[in-house]
Amino acid sequence: MNISSNKLVSWDEMDGGHGMLILNDFATVQAAVESSDDYAKMLKRWGMDDPKKIVTTPLTVGYLGGNPLHGISSLINKRT
């Protein structure tokens, strides 16, 4: 990746590699959310009482055009 031109300049496949997100990541994230007291408290502020009714999705990192919280922070700030 050439950061100056924002272009991919080469690509090398690697044997034995995998994408940044694997199936186990889904179960790991879901278990972490369901067992988190802090997450349960946050959900209650939104009127939800059961974290097991929330389905989580792990996301890979990526370029979001600058600010990674663009568009999200305004939603968060409304409920805090």
Helix amount: 25-40%
Percent range for β-strand residues: under 5%
Radius of gyration: 18 Å
Total beta strands: 0
Series of H and E elements:
HHH
Structural class, by secondary structure, is mainly alpha
Task: Please give the structural blueprint.
Elements (H helix, E strand, L loop, with lengths): L22 H12 L2 H9 L27 H7 L1
Describe this entry's structure for a reader.
By secondary structure, this protein is mainly alpha-helical. Helix content is 35%, strand content 0%. It is built from three helices and no strands. The protein has helices at 23-34, 37-45, 73-79. It is elongated. The relative contact order is 0.12. The model has no long low-confidence stretch (mean pLDDT 77).
How would you summarize this macromolecular structure in one to three sentences?
The protein is mainly α. The chain has helices at 23-34, 37-45, 73-79. The chain is elongated and about 50 Å long.
